[in-house]
């Protein structure tokens, strides 16, 4: 069974950090581009960051520039989203998704999706 599983979410205070993981099972991520998305209550899903098969990154959300970083460890078949200086506006369910090779333009199609992990930023 082909799966992406997100982990690392939770409750964090404003200004804190979290690292989310996106692990694949049933397939390898080494020829895939991986995107991180988020969806806050009552809002549309938002593309955040993507990393292509060669490690190049694309940032889709100005609000996370300088605070969020995406990276990958192909040996562990995992992609990470490091989130620093979190604020309440970052509260959302975070999803990872995979597609072949390159990061798409905004709204591009992904082939595999995880179930999401909740991130709540609150004091």
The gist of it:
With 123 residues, the chain is an all-beta fold. It has no helices and 11 strands.
Describe the structure.
With 123 residues, this protein is mainly β. It has no helices and eleven strands. The protein has strands at residues 3-7, 10-12, 18-25, 32-39, 46-51, 57-59, 68-73, 78-83, 92-100, 112-113, 117-121. Strands 2, 4, 5, 6, 9, 10 and 11 form a seven-stranded mixed β-sheet that branches. Strands 1-3-8-7 form a four-stranded antiparallel β-sheet, with no helix packed on it. A hairpin with a 6-residue loop joins strand 4 and strand 5. The termini are far apart.
Instruction: Assign an overall shape.
Output: globular
Percent of residues in β-strands: over 45%
Q: What multimeric state do the chains show? A: single chain
What is the tally of beta strands? Answer: 11
Main beta-sheet annotation = 7 strands, mixed
Which runs of at least 5 residues are low in confidence (pLDDT < 50)?
A: none
Order of helices and strands: EEEEEEEEEEE
Count of helices? 0
Rg calc: 13 Å
The N- and C-terminal alpha carbons lie at a distance of 39 Å
Nearest-integer average pLDDT: 96
Alpha-beta content class: mainly beta
Proportion in helices: under 10%
Which helices and strands, and how do they pair?
Elements: E1 3-7, E2 10-12, E3 18-25, E4 32-39, E5 46-51, E6 57-59, E7 68-73, E8 78-83, E9 92-100, E10 112-113, E11 117-121
Parallel strand pairs: 2-11
Antiparallel strand pairs: 1-3, 3-8, 4-5, 4-9, 5-6, 7-8, 9-10, 9-11
């Amino acid at each position: 069974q082909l799966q992406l599983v997100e982990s690392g979410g939770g409750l964090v205070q404003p200004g804190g950090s979290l690292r989310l993981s996106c692990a694949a099972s049933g397939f390898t991520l080494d020829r895939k581009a991986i995107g991180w998305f988020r969806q806050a209550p009552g809002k549309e899903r938002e593309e955040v960051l993507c990393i292509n098969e060669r490690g190049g990154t694309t940032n889709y959300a100005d609000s996370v520039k300088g605070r969020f970083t995406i990276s990958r460890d192909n040996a562990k078949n995992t992609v990470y989203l490091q989130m620093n200086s979190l604020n309440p506006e970052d509260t959302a369910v975070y999803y990872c998704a995979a597609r072949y090779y390159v990061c798409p333009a905004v709204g591009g199609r992904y082939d595999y999706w995880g179930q999401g992990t909740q991130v709540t930023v609150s004091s």
